[in-house]
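Retro notes - structure team

What went well: the batch runner handled both jobs without manual restarts.
What didn't: labels got mixed up in the shared folder, which is why I'm recording both outputs here explicitly, each with its sequence directly above its tokens.

Job 1
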Amino acid sequence: MQLKIAAVHTRIRLGARRTNVKRLSDVVSKVIDKVDSVDLLVLPAYPLTGPIVGYYSDQKVPLLLKGYAERLSESEVQQSPTLMMVSRVAEEYGVHVLAGPIVERAGPRLYLTTIVVGPDGRLAGKYRKISLTQKELESGLTPGKEVLVFEVRGKDVRVGVFTDEDINYPEVVRALAYMGADVAIGTMLPFQTTFIKMRSEPGTGVLTLDVDHVVELLDVRSRENGMVSILVGGAVEGSNGLGLVAFMPTMIAEPETGVVKDKIMTYDDIDMPVIVEVERSPSRRLSEPLVRALRSLCRSSGRAEDQGEEEEL
């Protein structure tokens, strides 16, 4: 059965949780009204707070990360404004919701974590970003260790999750393919990376990344792994009415044809969804014996280094 995905291409205001909750609620409501039978709703990166690293002074970033950090567990939902909002949306509309990354606190550590919430409003999975940038490491964030592939209830389609910098590392998306993903979904707003040049738009000063380079990367990841890849961008507004400060297009790549040019979402398409329908990949059947072998090889033999960390799920 096909999986219908609606990726929300919208604006996020820096540090304005209430404004962002209201905007996202309004945009999601319009998307659900216009699009029939959505199975998976994808929200942009940092949906409530906006991005942090690279958007504030280096001295201020560690304090903001700690201040915005949320505990992501069913037993502490009240301590996570993002999980509360996403759970409400998922349950109200009966859809799976993918949102993140957000800053997660687990014991003494901070992660950049993307969450999946099921139609029952319960946390169904989370992915802690593996490929942290140098700036993120210097700011006190910890890299994750495991990729996430999940299946939407009632659909024989598996979804793999990645986050911005992961696109620069073939191993991350390849791991999703090995784990049986039929589609890879990631979020990206302009960020500081050694792999992709950041630039300012002439005349406006709005920050963006080298879009042609990002298109090439998404194209390659889709082709080499034989699966549809979706990159959800959006716009970042400054606090205190500073207007638009950063922008990243939303785009889709297909393994046979690469990035679909007429589906690239620009600033003119803000608050519009990208609709993608995905089927189970024929290559997945071929990968299943390999997946079983990898799982047996990677079986955990003890995780002493994780002592002191609170694990959920």
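Job 2
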Amino acid sequence: CRHCRAEAHPEPYEGELTTAEAKALIDTFPQVGEPIVIFTGGDPMMRPDILNRAAYARERGLRCVMSPNGTLITPEAARKIREAGIMRCSISIDAASAAQHDAFRGVPGAFDASMRGIEMLKKEDVEFQINTTVTRSNLASFKDIFHLCERIGAAAWHIFLLVPTGRGAGIRDEVISAQEYEDVLHWFYDFRKTTSMHLKATCAPHYYRIMRQRAREEGVTVDMANFGMDAMTRGCLGGTGFCFISHTGQLQPCGYLGLDCGNVRRTPFPELWKHTPWFLRFRDQSQYEGKCGRCEYHKVCGGCRARAASMSGDPMAEEPLCLYQPVKKAGDSGKERP
């Protein structure tokens, strides 16, 4: 896939966590709360023991979801996904037509194969959502993609703003401008009112600032009743409410930001989560550079740390695709504007 941060390939990588190591890692997760465990790739279905690992996590009371591309989901695989206790699968669809999607994915037939996989999940009553990466190529056809999501019965539609890392670094011309970014998130705010489907903007931390600005203009309270979980979460969760553990056990803030934050083979995960220096920096607004360090919306936005790193070279730099100018002056308390 042209935008893939993982630069995945068909063969296993050297040094992947063994099944035993993965289970031992899963055993540590409850020590940091009640996290949702996301099995991702590449395509996690390429790994033979993946559903056994998911079932193991479920037995320990953890909520599990998975992000396959759908092409390997046969009737038998869908049944095993259900039996493993996977709560939801996310399938990436980047265009409403097979031709456009396949061109972006780089594999003829990918669209139809993903759709077949979705049908298998539906037959087993496994909930699924559609993920779409926002690029210059598909921006104009977003409504068509949404209507496809509606037609096939998706539980949710998540849009991802392109982060130019991995293979994505080779398609920087597909990154939309800061103004287009702002426009699409305003459109997304308005569009969510027209459907009961859950819509979520991911790798788009500005949305949580825009949501509050628009809600204030409309006299609407930002709470669970009006905005669901969007009222409770934050834009960039990397190192604050989310982390990524690679196939070799390396801890990172997210899959797009390849900072080495320790390795679970050497240090227990709970210790890394609580004490790794990069994570502590991401949790402290005074460590942020530029306008992100003084913005009154920092607590609900934070700016995309991976995009800052990939486009400016500094993970703590200000979000490069944000037009907003903070009203707060340097030296203010850092509290969000009411």
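One thing worth noting from job 2: The first helix runs from residue 19 to 28.
We'll revisit the folder naming next retro.
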